[in-house]
Specification:
Elements lengths: L14 H13 L2 H19 L18 E2 L7 E6 L4 H15 L4 E5 L13 E9 L3 E2 L4 H8 L10 E7 L9 H12 L3 E2 L4 E3 L4 H17 L8 E2 L6 H9 L7 E10 L10 E6 L12 E4 L5 H11 L6 E4 L2 E4 H7 L8 H11 L2 H8 L3 H10 L2 H7 L7 H4 L9 E4 L10 E6 L3 E4 L2 E4 L1 H9 L5 E7 L14 E6 L4 H13 L5 E7 L2 H4 L3 H10 L4 E6 L9 H7 L1 H9 L3 E6 L1 H20 L3 H13 L3 E5 L1
Parallel strand pairs: 2-3, 2-4, 4-6, 6-7, 6-8, 20-21, 20-23, 21-22, 23-24
Antiparallel strand pairs: 1-9, 4-5, 10-11, 10-19, 11-16, 12-15, 12-19, 13-14, 17-18
Helix pairs in contact: 2-3, 8-9, 10-11, 19-21, 20-21, 21-22
């Protein structure tokens, strides 16, 4: 008798694929079926990953030993809180590893978690990212506020563990994870294992944390206790698909097909429209997603460092991807601009600069963060020079070159096989010297049409068009923050959708800096864009920004909000987004007539309902 379930008719599988899956199911042992359930979760993450930011492809080498629970157990719930997609991908990867180890597990966005369930939970894992000045991810704020508030229940029945993600160059490193960990302890919950604070290269630390966690679950009689090991081999064909998927761990070499300057002659800015070919990649994206770009460092900066260290560049070293030269490693494998605590500490030891070690040890964290903002690696090496250091000794002080995320400015439904970006090459002064953005200059100026750059798609579920196309949308952005809104309207154009839409856009000068002006005007003419209010800060004596336009149109804007409009903000987190938030509070307070506190509560409700979404950086 065939005991296999037939599968839902709307699974998306054709008859031959469904029969292939059932044939595989008949051939697997019970233990192997448990393994495969976790494996295919990893395959789904790698293929949709919308680029997948998972820590590693799920293969026989990366999952925990094959096992199954001796008795049924409650699923392990992993809650993630993040904005860029790293926390989500990591949580899904941990869930897949747990399933592969025979432990039922699921990953869930804390933004969608029902806080009323917290009092009944027995085991929760958290992957929590820190943003801005030590803040939790925007979508996770309601959960944090609930946990900090008077309604939070005592949790003596709960066992928990926290994996914190952050960037050590910031003052409040992993603060959101630390805050979560401390609050759960205050509420009486018991740690399964100690919190770990991960820097931007989190993969190895996260893997070790999860191994420790599984051991703790077993030692404490958790859901995985009593797992029965099994060494049954899986067919080689089952392991093949993960190796074929492009994603963060295996970026696709996308060819640049266009690099067009958007700003006009005489502009004080240089903003580019860049088109890349995705044909044959299998990568897909939705409006609101970001493109991860793996850049190369400025060759001039790499050469400057070689001279400072006294190396030729041809010395052989063991780089991140195997044997290479130190010159190639500095150009393409390691971060060579921004200072990190690790580099300062190790350079003090390598150079014998006792004065540097003493100076940094005496700094409070806030001063250290300021010191790192005001100095780059080359500045520190000049200030505390040393000679005779071997190239191999320096590499452990550097962190790997990280991908940069850019909001996608196109709809895959309107321009299939392509992805578009809006990029402003970053140039700024530091220590009386011009400094260059790593990825923006690489994309805009060093690469030419026909060149390729490794890319992947980073999903962003917290910046999506409403499911109902009739829902009004209000799009607020400045400069390159207009990128996802171009994708929004391209999507609506491709689908023939006509919901009301309102654009608030800001830049410096109307004549030279109105990005994608012809397209907005055509969408206005066609009725796809209902309204557009623009603010050009330098066209008059008194600066005019998008937040001023929001206030000027406050009465009508509140009517849109009352009609169910979704609000979107994209751009600078510390400047524009903060000012826009204040303007929205004023608009809502005036519209509702109930004061500032009520307006703040109402805006939080909009955010919790997915009607106020931010893509800020």
């Amino acid at each position: 008798m065939d005991m296999l379930p037939p599968g839902p008719p709307d699974s998306g599988l054709d008859d031959s694929s469904r029969e292939l899956l059932r044939s595989l199911g008949r051939a697997l042992t019970v233990e192997q079926a448990f393994w495969v359930s976790g494996y295919f979760a990893g395959v789904a993450e790698a293929r949709t990953g919308h680029g997948t930011a998972s820590t590693a492809p799920v293969t026989a080498a990366t999952v925990a030993p094959l096992s199954r629970p001796a008795t049924a157990a409650a699923p392990l719930k992993i809650l993630y809180a993040g904005e860029t997609g790293n926390a989500a991908a990591l949580a899904r990867d941990l869930a897949a590893r747990a399933q592969a180890a025979g432990l039922p597990a699921s990953a869930e966005d804390v933004a969608h978690y029902k806080t009323r369930e917290l009092k009944d939970e027995t085991t929760l894992l958290f992957v929590a990212s820190t943003h801005g000045e030590g803040e939790p991810a925007e979508p996770a704020l309601p959960f944090y506020e609930f946990l900090d508030g008077r309604r939070a229940p005592q949790l003596p029945q709960l066992r928990f563990a926290v994996l914190a993600l952050g960037d050590s160059t910031y003052e409040f490193f992993c603060e959101a994870g630390k805050r979560l960990d401390a609050r759960l302890e205050q509420l009486g919950a018991q740690r399964l294992c100690e919190r770990i604070d991960c820097d931007v290269e989190y993969e190895a630390d996260a893997g070790r944390w999860f191994e420790t966690l599984l051991a703790s679950l077993q030692a404490q009689g958790g859901a995985s206790a009593g797992a029965v090991p099994h060494d049954g081999a899986l067919p080689a064909a089952v392991l093949a698909p993960a190796q074929q998927a492009y994603g963060k761990q295996r970026p696709f070499p996308a060819q640049i097909s266009a690099n067009i300057r958007l700003t006009g002659r005489g502009s004080s800015k240089d903003t580019r429209h860049i088109e890349l070919e995705l044909e044959g990649s299998g990568l897909d994206y939705a409006p609101g997603d970001a493109l991860g770009v793996l850049p190369q460092n400025d060759p001039a900066l790499a050469e400057e460092l070689l001279q400072l260290f006294g190396w030729s560049g041809s010395e052989t070293v063991a780089g991140r991807h195997g044997e290479t030269t130190i010159g190639a490693a500095l150009r393409g494998e390691y971060e060579i601009s921004a200072l990190t605590p690790r580099f300062i500490e190790q350079w003090a030891a390598l150079s014998g600069a006792g004065a540097l070690a003493e100076r940094v040890a005496a700094m409070p964290r806030s001063e250290l963060a300021a010191f790192m903002r005001e100095n780059h690696i080359a500045d520190l090496v000049r200030a505390y020079p040393a000679s005779g250091i071997a190239p191999a000794a320096l590499l452990p002080a550097l962190r790997g070159l990280q991908p940069r995320l850019y909001s996608i400015a196109s709809s895959a439904e309107l321009v299939p096989g392509e992805v578009h970006l809006c990029v402003a090459p970053l140039r700024y002064q530091l220590q009386q010297r011009e400094r260059l953005g790593v990825a923006s200059l690489h994309l805009a100026e060093r690469l030419e049409v026909g060149d390729s750059v490794p890319v992947y798609v980073q999903q962003n579920e917290h910046f999506r068009l409403p499911a109902d196309a009739a829902t009004p949308i209000v799009m607020i952005g400045a400069g390159t923050g207009v990128a996802p809104y171009r994708a929004f309207l391209q999507q609506r154009e491709a689908r023939g959708e006509q919901g009301r839409s309102w654009l608030f856009f800001g830049e410096r000068n109307f004549r030279t800096d109105f990005l994608y002006q012809a397209e907005w005007q055509e969408w206005l003419r066609a009725g796809l864009l209902t309204r557009a209010d623009v603010a050009f800060s330098r066209d008059q004596s008194e600066k005019l920004y998008v937040q001023h336009k929001l206030l000027q149109q406050g009465e009508e804007l509140y009517r849109w909000i009352a009609d169910g409009a979704h609000l979107y903000v994209c751009g600078d987190a510390n400047g524009m987004a903060h000012d826009v938030n204040a303007a929205l509070l004023s608009v809502i307070a005036a519209g509702r007539g109930r004061g500032a506190e009520d307006a703040a509560d109402f805006l939080r409700e909009l955010q919790a309902a997915g009607r106020y979404q931010k893509d800020v950086y």
